[in-house]
Amino acid sequence: MDVEKNVSRDVTISPPQGWTQLELHEVWEYRDLIWSFAARNFRVRYRQMALGPLWSILSPLIDMIIFSTIFGGLAKLPSEGIPYSVFTYTALIPWGYFSGVTTATAGSLVSEMDVISKIYFPRLVIPLASVLSLLFDTIISLLILTAMVLYYHFAITWKVLVLPLYLLLAAGAGLGMGLWLATLAVQYRDTRNLAGYGLQVLKFLTPVVYSASLIPEKWQILYNLNPMSWVVAGFRWIFLDTGLMPDISLWISILLVVILFVSGVYVFRHTERTIVDWL
Amino acid sequence: MSAISIEVDDLGKLYRYNSRAARSRTLGKAILDTLVSPFGYLSDSLRAPSTAGSLWALRHVSFTVQRAEVLGILGQNGAGKSTLLRILSRITLPTEGLARTHGRVGSLLQIGTGFNYELTGRENIYLNGTILGMKRSEVDRKLNAIVDFSGVERFIDTPIKRYSSGMVVRLGFSVAMFMDPDILLVDEVLSVGDAAFRQKSLEKVLELVEGGCSVLFVSHDLFMIQRLCKRSILFEAGKLIEETDTSSMIEHYLSKITNVMVAGEWLDLSTASHQGTGEIRFVRMRYRGADLKFQGQAYPDGPVEFLLEVESPGTRNISGVSVTLFDLSGFRLINAGSIEELGLNRGRSCVRISIEHLHLKPGTYSLALWMVGPADVLLDQILSAAYMNVTATTQGPPELNPFRDKVTSQVEVSVVRAEP
Questions:
Q1: Of A2, A7, A119, the CB nearest to B131
Q2: Domain extent for B90
Q3: The complex's ipTM?
Q4: Cα of A103 vs its chain's centroid, Å
């Protein structure tokens, strides 16, 4: 007997009425599809490239070289006594994950239009698959980071255990922002450009290429509301033993991410029901 | 499991196309609009949905589908068939009314949804299978059966961009056939692939039906509909206008189709879909029962003659011309014509193809025309040129002798002067 037949069920299809239930159990039922999409993203991204999966390591590495040359070498930005290259690379990894998730999520409904217009599945599956496939890239980059950290004689300590929580925070922030943007992108086509600029601004509002200690004291509280500041600080704290100890504003920014994420899921689930009519 | 698979109650879908365009399409403009009239959106959403600039793609539609029933859906383009399937497969929601589905719904609005051409056949089976709602473990178990059915086992680890289009379709279809749905929603897709595979897919669908699966079947292909569905519903301009058994439905539907030939009357072929170089073209055609019994109707085992008027830019030879008759399940029954050289004059000529005994039962048949020049250059081909009826004689349908070969039935082809 088919065990999987338990998906067979009665479905009532009726007009959209106000705000829906989230029905996240349905997303859970489609967990295998999340995996399929993630595997596809990963395979397709690299199969056609001469360097293959190396690209996932190369892009933060190239960023690191550029930033080290310009900000570390020419502008001589302080990096808290830590070699600039490893200082910025530590931040580029979570930043890359966050911006990757945001961009992929924001474009998810439009880019998978072909499939969306032909078959039903919870659309939330698409961004979740991006979270997964980008996580894979991030893990490879983290291996490089580990090598660099050891090369510069920093120790890998128990703090690494906190790493998943910071990755989760980055993914949550990226998903939350991306889901809102995806919803807007359905109605307003210029959302994509806006998102691109927004991410660039946010990148410089986050201590990726510089040290958070450059920010004047009176702005620190506001500055630290940016969840990505905390993620970057957390990464530096884990790998380089510098940066901020968590304080009250970490909890505030976690709360912000949760609000952003939950509201993002709501508007996304709301839009997905009739998305096909809009595009 | 309940005895009813699908219940549709007063379903309606309103599409707006004007108000949408009138509203801001860019974020910049939306912000500007909000600044200019901050409460504009309120008046927009408080106003009752107006019907100006909108279209009911579907309205007041109600029907039920029993378990293990195959229901055909007929209608011209834009009649609402596809909208109905989209609602039932939950791709979009209705504007009013209600639909209930009981059991696992497999929707086949497209073959191989989500196929990625960079991925191998095997990887695409998993991708497509999970998109269709299967678990990976389920695909694991069915993998061999799927691969067998598709007939592409040799290339299963090759990226499908190297496949022929036929292979891609077969692979996609095979995955869909193994998802074991309780309800299958099919849009057009059964008419893909080569004849042998089509036959195989059809048998597989019937096997599913025998196992209790209900099928909602949309197609322009009357052959398929008649073969699969006992009962059909007919849509026109978003409304369900008829619900009855398929054969009378098809009769009704055909009566609305313009290319059903009337015995003895010319059918204009200028609007038909032509293939080939077009140097020499079919212009119009007609048929008549050659012995003028039954007002010139074609009847079983009677003689029939086809007149194909062709237009040639000069004196030309053609090296082959034929009329092919298909039954409503797409089966090729008769191919009458010649592959001998025939000379045509400049302007219009008439090719006469006469069949001494038309070994066909009463019913509706579809006709295709074909013409090649020297060196087998395809001059013109019309795959669905016309429909014709073979009428029952008063003696009732004769017992057709199955051993009398179609080929031995005398066929004569000649060029005659074109009629004015």
A1: A119
A2: 4-16+58-256
A3: 0.85
A4: 8
